[in-house]
Specification:
Oligomer: single chain
Number of domains: 2
Order of helices and strands: HEEHEEHEHHEEEHEEE
Number of strands: 11
Structural class: alpha+beta
CATH architecture of the largest domain: 3-Layer(aba) Sandwich
Strand order of the largest sheet: 2-10-4-9-8-7-6-5
Helix content: 10-25%
Length: 255
C-alpha cells in the first residue's frame, strides 16, 4: 500500500480496518475479542473515535411492517402528498442527477439501470409534480449489486433456519429462505423531516415481501433508532480501528 501510494504521487499516512466496496467488514467485529485486538495492537493499530457500525436484519415471514408504522406510512402518503413506486427507465436521468448531487452511492443505481433492473429501487414521488423525492435500493436475490455484499448470504443463518441461499422452492414457485437487501436510502433535502424516509423503507419492505423475500439485510448502519422502528435488530457490530504514523516501520512481532 505504501508503494502504491508513492507511485500515485501520494503518501500513506493512515490505514483503517474495513472495506466500503466490496462490502466486507466496515470495521473490526466486536465479537473477535481481546486476543484479536491485541494482535492488531502489536501491529500499530488502535481503536479510534469512529462510531460503532452495525449490520441489521429482520425476518419478514410474519409481520414485516409494524402496524403503527403502516398507519404512519398512509398518513405521510395522504397528508404530505407522497406516492411510492418502483423506479423506471423513464425516471433514470432525474434520479441520477439527484443521486450525484446529494449522495455518494450513485454508482449502485447506475449499475442496476445498466442491467435493466430499475425495479430493484423504490422511489418516493410528489403526487402533484411527480418529482422524485426519495430513493432506496430494495434488492431481491437476482439483483446484480448483491454480489458486492460479502455477508448477505449469511445474514439469515440461524434466523431463517438456512443460509438464505436460493436452493429450495415452494410449491407456488417462490424461493424459500431468500434474503433481500435495503441500502443507499436517501431523501432530497427539500423533503427531509416529513417522514418520507421511514415510509419509503416501509414500502420497500412490502415490495420485497410481495416478491417472496423472507428476510431483509441492511449493512453498515451508523444512525440509531431509525430502522429499529421498523423492527430491524442488530446482526453484527464493528468498531473503528486505525494505524497512524510509522507505517513504513517493520513490526516484527510474534503472531
Amino acid at each position: 500500500l505504501k508503494k502504491a501510494a508513492k507511485e500515485n504521487g501520494g503518501e500513506l499516512k493512515s490505514l483503517v480496518i474495513g472495506s466500503e466496496t466490496p462490502r466486507f467488514w466496515p470495521g473490526l467485529p466486536v465479537t473477535f475479542g481481546e486476543s484479536v485486538e491485541a494482535w492488531f495492537g502489536k501491529r500499530g493499530f488502535k481503536k479510534s473515535n469512529g462510531p460503532v457500525i452495525r449490520d441489521l436484519f429482520k425476518d419478514i415471514r410474519q409481520e414485516f411492517v409494524p402496524s403503527a408504522i403502516k398507519v404512519k406510512i398512509e398518513k405521510v402518503a395522504k397528508e404530505k402528498g407522497i406516492r411510492f413506486a418502483p423506479w423506471t427507465e423513464e425516471g433514470y436521468e432525474e434520479c441520477m442527477v439527484k443521486q450525484r448531487e446529494n449522495f455518494s452511492w450513485s454508482k449502485a443505481y447506475a449499475v442496476l439501470a445498466a442491467h435493466s433492473q430499475h425495479h430493484e429501487v423504490m422511489v418516493a414521488f410528489d403526487t402533484e409534480t411527480n418529482e422524485q423525492l426519495g430513493w432506496t435500493l430494495m434488492c431481491g436475490p437476482e439483483a446484480i449489486v448483491k454480489d458486492i455484499y460479502a455477508f448477505l448470504p449469511l445474514a439469515g443463518k440461524d434466523i431463517l433456519g438456512r443460509k438464505g441461499e436460493n436452493d429450495e422452492r415452494k410449491g407456488d414457485g417462490k424461493m424459500e429462505g431468500t434474503i433481500g437487501l435495503i441500502a443507499a436510502v436517501g431523501v432530497d433535502k427539500k423533503a427531509r423531516g416529513r417522514g418520507v424516509g421511514l415510509a419509503l423503507v416501509g414500502r420497500a419492505m412490502e415490495n420485497l415481501k410481495e416478491r417472496g423475500v423472507d428476510g431483509i439485510f441492511i449493512d453498515s448502519v451508523v444512525i440509531r433508532d431509525f430502522y429499529e422502528r421498523l423492527g430491524f435488530e442488530t446482526r453484527w457490530e464493528y468498531e473503528a480501528w486505525e494505524c497512524v504514523g510509522e507505517l513504513g516501520k517493520d513490526r516484527m512481532v510474534d503472531t
